[in-house]
Amino acid sequence: MLDVLRYAIKEAEAQGADDAEAYAAVSAESEVFIENNDLKQAKSQAISSIGIRVLLNGSLGFYSVNRLSKDDVKGAVSMAIKVARVSPKDRYNSLPSRSKVRLLRGIYDRKAESFEASDAAGLAAEMLQAAKSYDNRVSVDSGNLASAVATHALANSNGTELKERISTFSWSIMGMAIEGSNVSSFDFQSGGSHFVKDIDARRASVEFAETVVNSLGPQRITSFRGEMLLTPSAVSELVEEVISHSINSDTVQKKSSQFAGKLGKKVSSELLAVEDDATNTEGLGAASFDREGVPHRRNVVIEKGVLKKFLYNTYTARKDGVRSTGNAGGSTSSPPSVSATNFIIRPGRSSLNALVSEMENGIIISRFSGNVNPVNGDFSGVVKGGRLVKNGEIKHAVKEVMMAGNVFDALRHLTGVSREQKAIFDSILPYMRFDNVSFTAG
Amino acid sequence: MQGSGTHMLDSLQSLISSSRGARYVEARHQSRSMTDVNFVNGELERIRVVENSGCGIRVLVDGCWGFSSTSNDTSFDALKESLGQAIAAARALAKTKKNRVQGLAESKMVKGTFRLKVRGSLSDVDIEQKVQVTREAEKAARKHSKAVRAASCVYHEMLDHKLIVNSDGAEVEIYDSKPEFSVTAIAKKAGQSATAHEGVGITGGWDDLFGAKSQFDYAAAASERAAKLLEAKHAKGEKTTIILDPGMVGLLSHEAIGHTVEADFVLSGSVVKGRIGEKVASELVTLVDSGRSDLADNAAGTIMVDDEGVAAERTAIIENGILKSFLHNRESAMTFGTASTGNARAFQYNDEPLIRMRNTFIEPRSDRLDDMIKETRHGYLVKGARNGQADANGEFMFGAEEAYLIENGEIRELMRGASISGNAFDALLSVDMVGDKFQYDIGTGYCGKYQPAKVDGGGPYVRCTAVIGGLQ
Questions:
Q1: Which of B46, B69, B267 comes nearest A45 by C-beta?
Q2: What is the spatial distance between Cα A229 and Cα A235, in angstroms, rounded to a whole number?
Q3: Which of A177, A332, B166, B461 has its CA 20 to 30 A from that of A301?
Q4: What is the ipTM of this complex?
């Protein structure tokens, strides 16, 4: 693979590029789909792709092709140069200089090489079984179990040459519980791992089944202002998107981030600590280097509620006169963007049980369905799978309740973060409790 | 796009005839070339050209579906290996799958080559011109109106060459070309902002895209509208008479009705289950999904033949108010004891065909827009379909960019973007006037259902009753 990349760089230089980068990925994937309480289809695929980025007099050219023969790569290089010749100049275009990368351990399992579609089918069947046997009112609408072994490699004209292999397994399940004409809220649960031995698809199924059964027989409540306790899934829907948008240097530079100009300032209650960490192997976003070959590191973004850092790739870093934080993201088929790797909200001190028992009047929210505006933080929508808590006790499921507010305001009213955390693909999130939320009964 | 079309076709044919033990085998080879150019506020935000090609193989073995794909190597040996993987995948399911696929409905398999008609081949237009047009339009949108402070422009094209061969006799070659172009303008003053979009997405060539309007026309229209919207007041929330423009009619037909009649959704319990033959809309409503560009040229969802080799013709979902048909692939058609409607579509070579819509629209009748306005005592004319959502029960909420207040048969003033909501079937039952001029207008959108699909929709102006709400 590195041979092909070296060839691409040499060819680009020969064709007149000032700088060149080639990023390739080759993977073998298999996946089994669940639909309507049954297995639906099994799929296996071999994917390979290369993205060529060239710089010519400050202009960027990009071309991607999903074949790796020398002829294809040569053609891709000349097309990338052709694109650069018609692109406007941008003085911030540059490639990172070569830096030392220490390869991560714990993201590749040799046993993944022999994991086949039949293994995936067996596990998917177990997932279905686990959900149905938890309670026969559970109905699985869809789900999947996927495995991938991928090698990604990068070379550039500054002498960078990197390659590593990553194995990932991921699974998901969604649906509802049905009892006569009573249909519960939808729920979605998922999980992921890098190692075969860590696949625990049953757990997601049981959690899904428990959530939908608990949300059966909802009762009407009256409108009130009180506390909300978000599960990790709801945290990801409501809070994560807004924070990860706001800490991205690209949105900061384009003035669409509320955090612009707030470095060193308090942006939330002291209980909030956020980091971006691709070296945490519990998240599926773990890798040793980013989309342009910059080594990954742990970036502390918010500490005790204070904004510490934005996430940068080489381009946005150059605009601000700082160093890349290793957050060049994207696939082989696009030039690098800026993105979070593993988005982590650090665990707090309270147990989940304590968070519930301290609640006077509030709702536990499994999912949130509605609109969240990542720019200004406004959200409005419907609570899914909500359960009413009074004086520390879970009372009953609630009929769909409207909830509207602002995420940035809510972060100032954060009153508790759980010790328990959950990895959801490339996020690792705790339960979070907020005060002063207004719920409107329908 | 690829000179080796015939060679690949032969290769797929021998592959199909070599397979043993599978009840059905389908091999699709697809080469796609995609170009994106995007300017934002005077800067190049994104430029890329992506070429993807490969072969997807789907098999039905022991009542189970297996799928495999390969891209880097499409030699005969590699295809054979891939076929072996698809069969192994299907067999892996056979151990645990409860309900086997009963079979595929009999369908006439298409043979032949289809070139979707274009004026001005996109591959003959240099990328320099694509960059220039995008750059000029973005700049023009900012310069055209003083109030406009920010703008962006996107050009996107997708060129496809497809070969579809299956063991039931399909042998299809398709050349397709789908470009799109859109300009967004944002007007601002004292803490307020208003956004307007103007764009087009079609099946066709460069001259089809810029035939009627130039890049400057799109830019000027977006810019003027954003400036006008900035001065507009918000609409008052109420249930009232609403005249929908062709884009809103297309969005309603696709999102709120179309998805509920996709046979896979029907099977998992959508609101129309078991209601074929019932009256679900006003008798003025004939709602169609077609793989051809019926009634007007260049509809973006045009496919001619679906990915199972079935002709993608006109399917009347609702005819004169009566629910007539769901949308089927061959598997669901078998389950429902009917024929496939040619709705099996895959986005790329490595996607399996799913039941997807194509061009979804309401057919025109005889009312003139002027009369529709004149006969409205109080209500709104809403234009400019924006994103929306719809549930399996037909409940919908869509955004409209412009809402014009109508009082005593006359258009009064432009109001800010509003949301239109209600139950789609109730809205269709309330239809009392259907316009005479037809237009497609949602061709810049993609439909998402596990994988994207290029779709279109439209209609004439249609008058109905729905809830108009304030700003979304």
A1: B69
A2: 9
A3: A332
A4: 0.91
